[in-house]
Amino acid sequence: MLIAGFPAGAFQTNCYLVAPAAGEECVIVDPGQDAVDGVDDLLREHRLKPVAVLLTHGHLDHVWSVAPVCGARDVPAWIHPEDRHLLSDPAAGWSPTSSQLFGGITLSEPDDVRELSDGAVMELAGMEFVVDHTPGHTRGSVSFRLPPEEIMFSGDLLFAGSIGRSDLPGGDYPTILRSLAAKCLPLPDETVVLPGHGPQTTIGRERASNPYLKEAAPHAGPTRGI
């Protein structure tokens, strides 16, 4: 398994390229602000051919470069239907005050947009991605898991030591706690979490020390694989 990534733009949003190995097909996760050059560099370095872009949610810092990345390689973008409108109306995902900062930005949907659903198993680039709908940060937030490798791309659901904010349009704190309880806490401790911002972590580390996971714990179901 090859996972290469970099923090993109002023928001330092983690963009990931995922492939079975160098020289093969790959999937791109969350190409954010000014991510085109970084994506192209990694594609060349590892001799990768993208087949899809996966979006954990529709916030501007995660989708900024999706149209040019998809257009240059003629690949589809996948997003949950609850967040699809943010691809062409990014200001709708921000507060009125912060929306003024992005008033001059015009984005558009890629030519080929496909919609994600909870529990879907997507076979892409020789890998199986499981889609978990994890609302709370936005209504259409999702995480992607590679179960055999025990890897989770958590977007802005779960960070090392923290979670995504829930005070923007479409966010809701009780909902994000339920998502953490339903989709994160049942995972094995050794599951590697690759978040939308900041360093990677593990479910075990967050279970032991993340105050938000502790708050979510009373709502969790049985833990798998521990």
From TrEMBL:
Q: Which InterPro entries match?
A: MBL_Glyoxalase_II, Metallo-B-lactamas, RibonucZ/Hydroxyglut_hydro
Enumerate the SMART domains for this protein.
Answer: Lactamase_B
| Top-rank lineage group of the source organism | Bacteria
Q: Please state every residue range assigned to the domain named Metallo-beta-lactamase.
A: 12-197
Gene3D superfamilies given in the database record:
Ribonuclease Z/Hydroxyacylglutathione hydrolase-like
Cofactors that this protein relies on: Zn(2+)
Q: Which UniProt keywords apply?
A: Hydrolase, Metal-binding, Zinc
Q: What is this protein called?
A: MBL fold metallo-hydrolase
